[in-house]
Design goal:
Length: 560
């Protein structure tokens, strides 16, 4: 062949070359998966699976490490993308498995339910028309005395009218409420007998000292419809009930994928499942995670530009759990500022707030018509939740700034939550607490106003920590703050993709470090009182760091 003769174009790779290229992409993640399976099998053989806190710590450290990587589309080569997807899926699956395995729950068996939560939410919702908010415990004793006598060994219960502990013996001799028909009373006894048969006396001694059934009429309308349609005693119906939460969270995850992509959404899912407030919450209860699913989906819809849908979801979450209303802080503030300047509200804010109002109105109507009490149900709920919240603030396993001020600073860290002492300490520290609370609220409000629409909505979640004392599982809303600064999937403004800023990556890792610290805490005591005091101290430091990052970022943007 003549050397000057032009050569043909690039040759297509041979079948062998293509096969080798394919294997080079597939083999590393497959080898990784096999290695991880081997590690898990060996760990199970050594009994590591029985030490769930140890497994939680490993998963949390892994997630925190990935958070620091700061992956982007430019960083994600095909191999790295597969590797990252495998790791995140593994962590999310492991976190879910840990929560399900805590009580050795198995899908399709009676052990799949968590009796503590199901007792309150199933019986409380199904028989709300008869029991209201005050009579679940005493009527349980009366019904049990007529039937199985499984609760005979319970010495004391909490009086849900006063929250004081009273002797159970006298309550057992009480009468059934006139609100029960013979048919409903028989059904109540049968449902109760099924649940009390799942656990021994020591378990029920603790359950009947809890704080009763407290959801809003909006949630109760849905819960009542579900529990009156699906019997907890029927295995198939029971399985459907416990799967509701799983499906709700996965639905929000699917919306999040459209908004933020697979990897960031899987990261949030794994962090939610591993959250230290979620043991016994993500699997085995009935329709308890609707608020988180609605809130996560609302944030994703807001990022996608679907303002009305986002607002309606926030409206729903607000009416079933109240505190998600903080997400409306940013749009309300922006509308107010524009009104002061004589300008009409921005279209997206107007649509969001209209959707929220519509969602609240619909849920209010549902709560009013969902039982036989009408508007009285809302009055009962108001009285109940005020009393419940006033007592709730002084208990253990709580998250919120106020919780830190239940300490007697001169005496050091108590290991046990003593309500009278905590109440006295909070009263003594009231001035300091209010001062810090107002300063933090003002700083977060300023940060919210200075942020873009997406981040402003998310920053409202910080007000839950500043303004309330919440149960540990409601702190899962803080996980959504790891979506700060996340662009919409396929955003042309991110071409070429920019890495997630190091300060935000550090905040993500820092929040997960707090989760790890709670699981690894060597502090002991009644109901983890000391552990949660330190958890709140760490969260306060984290929120201060969040403020520093937001104000620094704003200053850089302005000076640039």
């Amino acid at each position: 062949m003549d050397l000057d003769e032009p050569t043909s174009g690039p040759q297509e790779p041979s079948k062998l070359a293509r096969a080798e290229a394919l294997l080079s992409r597939i083999l590393p993640p497959v080898a990784l998966c096999l290695g991880l399976v081997l590690v898990i099998v060996v760990a199970a053989h050594l009994g590591a699976g029985k030490k769930l806190n140890y497994v939680r710590q490993i998963v949390t450290i892994g997630l925190a490490s990935l958070a620091l990587v700061g992956w982007t589309r430019s960083w994600l080569t095909p191999k790295r993308q597969v590797l990252l997807g495998v790791l995140l899926t593994l962590f999310a699956g492991s976190a879910f498995w840990i929560q399900a395995a805590q009580q050795a729950r198995h899908l399709g068996e009676d052990k799949q339910i968590y009796p503590w939560g199901v007792y309150h939410y199933y019986l409380g919702a199904k028989y709300f028309d008869e029991l209201g908010y005050k009579h679940l415990y005493d009527q349980s004793l009366v019904a049990d005395a007529e039937e199985t006598k499984d609760l005979k060994g319970v010495p004391k219960i909490r009086d849900l009218s006063t929250y004081r502990f009273v002797k159970a013996k006298k309550r057992r001799k009480g009468k059934r409420l006139d609100t029960f028909s013979d048919e409903r009373w028989s059904e109540f006894k049968a449902d109760l007998a099924f649940m009390t048969g799942l656990k021994g006396t020591d378990f029920w001694k603790q359950v009947l000292r809890d704080r009763g059934y407290n959801p809003s009429p909006s949630w109760n309308a849905i819960g009542s419809a579900l529990t009156n349609s699906l019997s907890i005693r029927d295995r198939t119906s029971q399985t459907l009930l416990v799967l509701l939460d799983v499906l709700l969270v996965l639905s929000a995850f699917a919306v999040s994928i459209r908004a933020y992509g697979w990897t960031r959404s899987m990261f949030i899912l794994a962090a939610f499942y591993i959250w230290f407030g979620n043991p016994n919450r993500v699997f085995g209860q009935i329709y308890n995670l609707d608020w988180f699913a609605a809130t996560w989906a609302a944030v994703a819809c807001w990022r996608l530009g679907r303002a009305r849908t986002a607002g309606a979801l926030i409206g729903y979450a607000t009416m079933v759990r109240i505190f998600p209303i903080v997400l409306l802080t940013a749009p309300i503030a922006h509308v107010g500022l524009r009104a002061i300047r004589g300008r009409p509200p921005a279209t997206q804010h107007r649509r969001l707030l209209a959707g929220a109002v519509a969602g609240m109105v619909v849920m209010f109507a549902l709560g009013t018509m969902g039982g036989n009490k009408g508007l009285t149900a809302w009055k009962m709920f108001g009285n109940n939740i005020v009393h419940h919240s006033s007592e709730h603030a002084y208990g253990s396993r709580r998250l919120g700034l106020q919780h830190l001020f239940g300490l007697s600073w001169s005496e050091g860290l108590e290991k046990k939550a003593v309500k009278k002492k905590n109440r006295a300490n909070q009263e003594a520290n009231k001035t300091l607490f209010r001062t810090i609370q107002l300063v933090l609220a003002a700083l977060f409000l300023l940060a919210i106003i200075r942020s873009d629409d997406h981040d402003g909505l998310l920053l409202g979640a910080a007000l839950v920590f500043v303004g309330t004392v919440a149960s540990r599982y409601y702190g899962a809303i803080f996980i959504l703050l790891m979506l700060l600064g996340c662009p919409a999937r396929g955003d042309p403004g991110q071409s070429p993709p920019k890495p997630r800023p190091l300060p935000l990556r550090s905040l993500d890792a820092g929040l997960l470090a707090i989760v790890w610290a709670v699981y690894a805490s060597p502090l002991k005591g009644s109901e983890d009182w000391a552990t949660y005091v330190w958890a709140n101290a760490l969260l306060l430091a984290w929120f201060l760091a969040l403020l520093a990052v937001r104000f620094t970022a704003h200053h850089r943007a302005v000076t640039a």
